[in-house]
């Protein structure tokens, strides 16, 4: 077997090592354009979990690597004159040059041929090879040569960064957030060997220009950074090595394999340096390829196993990197945060670390976070403890004169179970049980303002007396048997109306029994959907009046809050999105024009809704489609509604057009809530695959939302919030007297259960290499 590897970085060398171990007789050669001891950058960083993987796959190289590494356990966040140290992280750093030399030495031991200063530009040179690996880095010429096949997507990020080094010793992975006369600068720094540390400097493009960095060479740039961070460098020099400012390219390739050729490492995909995973991804690519080669019957099958088996893990890492880099790109959103809340945001920015996880590894730090959050709540006039505060989820919140006992919200979820718009026994049990279950606030499903405003024949409505009576019965039950507040969500289906029940084909048109639908423009949702009638002024007046009449009925029912549905492609959302609004009149064109009718509806509702009661608006913060609403648009939309008197923005996303490409994942819509809250400066509620109280605490403590809406968890567990209250010891959680013995029991049991689980997790967690090294170097006690 003959293998040619183009690129002598960590991916190529480690692949050569692992493949040669499997097939000692194979002819494996690595071709590198640079010299053996050339390298870009200074240090690389790995987690303990990554080192565990190296240990399992090649023990000799693992031992040499770990002998050279600098270990640390803490992350230190410097911000506005404070420093917060968070332990239990388990990181290690090594010189990139040393890593390459170790891998080269190990490859030679195994019999791999290494060729340096050889520039390969044509893979036909290896026509006789059974396998060709393209590991030629972020600027891969072979990925570009076969661009039509690999179909890479390159997202050049906005922030500027430069990679430098220093002689400044560090005992923690260090983040420094520095305010300057030009704007904020960030340093990501860590020690990789005795006397040397890596320093990556980052800033936004506007600050970069104001600071005059565009015209500086390497030496001048280093001098400027040394001036900015001199207080911390403490006289130590900054070192350069091709340390030019540039933008980070996020690269994703549709395909990784072509015939017997395969992309590896940065050539196929990149991950932002803020999560330190570039070299990790590269070497784990090599592991995945070697594992596939060991198991598959032939090379073609092995490459298929590698591509399809490895892709999910790479995409997960890239998603975490995406979320992390966006946090750093928009650090100005958080600049006025309390420093401890800011540090918590740094730690949890990529969603990999959560509130509970952090509390186990750094309990003192999380205790500070809890006190900081409680102080913010107390400043709003609530009599809450700041010495022994409750977790954020169980802190109270106020909108106008409506106070809710906790931040857990039952999300608005259509039940499609009403008859001619009348909620029945199902709805009474559905809403009543979740209210008793402890949620601070529950939302109705989208309640339609007229018969022709329904999505499906099963949608609830509020346009006649019978419906009003039924809703009043539900509201009275909620108020009489729980501490929950209840919000009425009003909406109009628009072009997505006259469709089947969800379980019969969501958004598909009815075969019979339908009704005429309207929209901003005559564009059907599906090609075979009904073509909606474009609303004229008379139609707009009728829609506005139906919303007002429904709101007046809602007030008579006793609802505590009112929400206007302007999301998910329904009528008002169809005005807002340019993908569904092609009008040429004053209600089309610019975002200001497209918002005109939704704002008109909102203002009409605000005029009849009691002033002491809050109002919210649900928006789609992105259409997940080219040319549609973006996060920046969502900020402008939120500001417009805030100017009209909105108290809360319910931040959802998508469902505007059928060919949208949503990016799913845990808490996948929370970044939009974060952006709207911290740029528009308006209270937000987040929603979207939030499934645990731990996630809710993470979101709230980091300042990404003010309320957390949970949908599917509430569908299967009406007592989701009560169970969370027991878990976190929120003893003041309301419980009707009929259920009090059950509450007492679960609160007693949860104390023990939580203690047992935490002890189990602590025991199961292996010691970090930093801890093991500290123990090994500790002097023996005198006998």
CATH architecture of the largest domain: Alpha-Beta Barrel
CATH homologous superfamily designation of the largest domain: Aldolase class I
> What's the gyration radius in Å?
29 Å
Query: Would you state the CATH class of the largest domain?
Result: Alpha Beta
In terms of DSSP E residues, the strand content is 15-25%
Considering the chains and any ligands shown, give keywords for the structure.
783 residues; FAD/NAD(P)-binding domain; TIM Barrel; 2 domains; 41% helix; 19% strand; Aldolase_TIM; NADPH dehydrogenase activity
Structural topology:
Layout lengths: L1 E5 L3 H13 L4 E6 L10 E5 H10 L1 H10 L1 E3 L2 E5 L2 E5 L4 E5 H15 L2 E4 L14 E4 L6 H5 L1 H4 L1 E15 L6 E7 L4 E10 L2 E8 L1 H6 L7 H11 L1 H4 L4 E2 L6 E8 L3 E2 L2 E3 L14 H18 L3 H31 L9 H10 L6 H7 L1 H17 L17 E3 L2 E3 L3 E3 L14 H12 L4 E3 L3 E2 L16 H17 L3 E7 L10 H4 L12 E2 L13 E2 L2 H21 L3 E6 L4 H6 L14 H4 L1 H13 L6 E6 L10 H13 L4 E5 L17 H11 L3 E3 L6 H9 L5 E4 L1 H5 L3 H9 L11 H25 L4 H9 L6
Parallel strand pairs: 1-2, 1-9, 2-8, 5-11, 9-17, 20-21, 20-30, 21-23, 22-23, 23-26, 24-25, 26-27, 27-28, 28-29, 29-30
Antiparallel strand pairs: 3-7, 4-7, 5-6, 10-13, 10-14, 10-15, 11-12, 12-13, 16-17, 18-19
GO molecular function: FAD binding; FMN binding; NADP binding; NADPH dehydrogenase activity
Pfam families: FAD_binding_3, Oxidored_FMN
InterPro entries: Aldolase_TIM, FAD-bd, FAD/NAD-bd_sf, OxRdtase_FMN_N, YqjM-like
